[in-house]
Amino acid sequence: MSSRTGRGCLPRRSAGNAGTGFDEDARSGTLKVRLGLGWAKSHRFTTGQCPVMKYNRSLMMAILHGRVHIAKAVNATVIGLEDAPRGYAEFDQGASRKYVLDPHGALNGVRPV
Fold first, then answer.
1. What is the bridge-based pairing of β-strands 76-79 and 98-101?
2. What is the pTM of this model?
3. Neighbour tally for 65: CB within 10 Å
4. Helix count (H) and strand count (E) of the chain?
5. Exposed/middle/buried for 100, CB within 10 Å: 0-12, 13-18, 19+?
6. 99 with 77: CB under 8 angstroms?
7. What phi, psi does 26 have (nearest 5°)?
8. Is residue 70 classed exposed, middle or buried when 0-12, 13-18 and 19+ CB atoms within 10 A define those classes?
């Protein structure tokens, strides 16, 4: 939930809907699904835990061999220790990125911003 708006990631109403603001169904946790479209495309909707161990080894190997760049996937930015106050300030203001402090420059090949 965003600390600035207090509304989180709720979808906005489209321009065609009456009124303005956030979708009341999303606010109350209601999920509307058009079954006709889903049925035609044979989508599946399941709940429960993700089978992490099923994908763990292949994901680990992809990261180790450079096929997956985890920092891009999670929007991480490497910063030096001297930039830490700026990073904390931006994070507190709601910056949509994560910061990794690298005080000794150990993350070779990744430049601090």
1. parallel
2. 0.40
3. 8
4. 5, 2
5. middle
6. yes
7. -65, -35
8. exposed
Q: Is the dihedral of CA 90, 94, 96, 97 positive or negative?
A: positive
- Cα–Cα distance measured from residue 15 to residue 20, given in angstroms and rounded to the nearest whole number: 8
φ, ψ (nearest 5 deg) of residue 42 = 60, 45
- Where would I find the H helices in the chain? 24-27, 35-41, 52-64, 70-73, 84-92
pLDDT of 96 above 90: no
- Per residue in 8-39, pLDDT (tens digit) is 454 554 555 455 456 788 778 887 777 776 67
Residue 55, pLDDT above cutoff 60 = yes
CA atoms within 13 A on the CB side of 112: 15
User: Terminus-to-terminus CA distance in the chain, angstroms?
Assistant: 27
